[in-house]
Amino acid sequence: MTCPICSKPTDKSYRPFCSKRCADADLGNWIKGNYSIPSSNLEDMPESSSKDAPRFPQRH
């Protein structure tokens, strides 16, 4: 098994990661919202993602 962050072999102490650094990097990704689970349920979407909201910021 390899580390999902850097692809090095895993360490039993930090499995599924190879080190505390990679485990902390993964935690940071969760905290920042870099990971998400796709949903087609509109109730799961934040209000800012409504169908009326623009997909990209408007340029002036």
Automatic annotation (TrEMBL):
PANTHER family registered for this protein in UniProt: DNA GYRASE INHIBITOR YACG
Domain of life: Bacteria
Protein name, entry field: DNA gyrase inhibitor YacG
SUPFAM superfamilies in the record: Glucocorticoid receptor-like (DNA-binding domain) (SSF57716)
Coiled coil spans: none
Region (Disordered): 37-60
Presence of the UniProt keyword Ion transport in the record: no
Functional summary from the UniProt entry: Inhibits all the catalytic activities of DNA gyrase by preventing its interaction with DNA. Acts by binding directly to the C-terminal domain of GyrB, which probably disrupts DNA binding by the gyrase.
Source organism (scientific name): Qingshengfaniella alkalisoli
Record bears the keyword tRNA processing: no
HAMAP family assigned: DNA_gyrase_inhibitor_YacG (MF_00649)
One Pfam family cited in the UniProt record for this chain: YacG
Encoding gene (name): yacG
Cofactor needs: Zn(2+)
